[in-house]
Amino acid sequence: MFTLSAPILLRAYAAGIFPMAESAESRELHWFDPERRGILPLDGFHVARSLRKTLRRCPFDLRFDSAFRAVIEGCAEATDERPKTWINDDIVRLYGDLFDAGFAHSVECWRDGRLVGGLYGVAIGGAYFGESMFSRETGASKVALVHLVARLRAAGFALLDTQFVTEHLSRFGAVEIPRNEYRRRLAAAMERKTDFRGVDQQAALAELLESAATSPG
């Protein structure tokens, strides 16, 4: 029986393809290569006024890669807004392997020693492939996303892939581009040398808030 491995998954990402399961109970993964791909331009990021106020208050303790598997488990939780998840056991296993190999990263929001939100994704060269995010407290996933973008910009990344564009992501400036344009940008980003962990996060956040466009809300 064929077993999908982390190296095969990396090759798929490099080719512009990503997997999803139909549900948490599903034993199969399906490959996706959309005709139009969602990206979040790092130089066209929008931060709402209300979110800027939240960031200045620093309501959460931000950490990176300290609880990767707990972040995936948080993303897999069923909620009223998202009663069905696409994260099954194979997804948990595969991305855990990618994390162990240094290719997957999490951004985490903590309060009083409790994980209250975050996101995870895969990094290859100068491309970061965002997978999923979650919140157990208001605004936690939004704060995690802003910190992710700040870190990617400071570390020299060129592409933040969101797979699809949701109403939530469009508020940050996410757009769709044709498959051929996505692959062109992906190929260029993959050639970059980056260091996700070697960033002064406070300086990166300050630079982002200084330069990012302000959106209402």
UniProtKB/TrEMBL annotation:
Per UniProt, the keywords (alphabetical) are: Acyltransferase, Cytoplasm, Transferase
InterPro entries documented for this protein: Acyl_CoA_acyltransferase (IPR016181), Leu/Phe-tRNA_Trfase (IPR004616), Leu/Phe-tRNA_Trfase_C (IPR042203)
Q: Which domain of life is it from?
A: Bacteria
Please provide the Gene Ontology terms (biological process) for this protein.
protein catabolic process
Q: Which Pfam families match?
A: Leu_Phe_trans
What is this enzyme's catalytic activity, as reactions? L-phenylalanyl-tRNA(Phe) + an N-terminal L-alpha-aminoacyl-[protein] = an N-terminal L-phenylalanyl-L-alpha-aminoacyl-[protein] + tRNA(Phe); N-terminal L-arginyl-[protein] + L-leucyl-tRNA(Leu) = N-terminal L-leucyl-L-arginyl-[protein] + tRNA(Leu) + H(+); N-terminal L-lysyl-[protein] + L-leucyl-tRNA(Leu) = N-terminal L-leucyl-L-lysyl-[protein] + tRNA(Leu) + H(+)
Q: Which GO terms describe its cellular component?
A: cytoplasm
EC annotation from Swiss-Prot or TrEMBL:
2.3.2.6
GO MF annotation terms: leucyl-tRNA--protein transferase activity
Q: List the Gene3D superfamilies hit by this protein, alphabetically.
A: Leucyl/phenylalanyl-tRNA-protein transferase, C-terminal domain
User: Which residues are the signal sequence here?
Assistant: none
Q: What is its main location?
A: cytoplasm
Where does the record say this protein resides? Cytoplasm
* SUPFAM superfamilies to which the protein is assigned, alphabetical: Acyl-CoA N-acyltransferases (Nat)
Q: Which family does it belong to?
A: Belongs to the L/F-transferase family.
**What does the UniProt function comment say about this protein?**
Functions in the N-end rule pathway of protein degradation where it conjugates Leu, Phe and, less efficiently, Met from aminoacyl-tRNAs to the N-termini of proteins containing an N-terminal arginine or lysine.
**PANTHER family named in the record:** LEUCYL/PHENYLALANYL-TRNA--PROTEIN TRANSFERASE (PTHR30098), LEUCYL_PHENYLALANYL-TRNA--PROTEIN TRANSFERASE (PTHR30098:SF2)
Q: What is this protein called?
A: Leucyl/phenylalanyl-tRNA--protein transferase
The UniProt gene name for this protein comes to aat
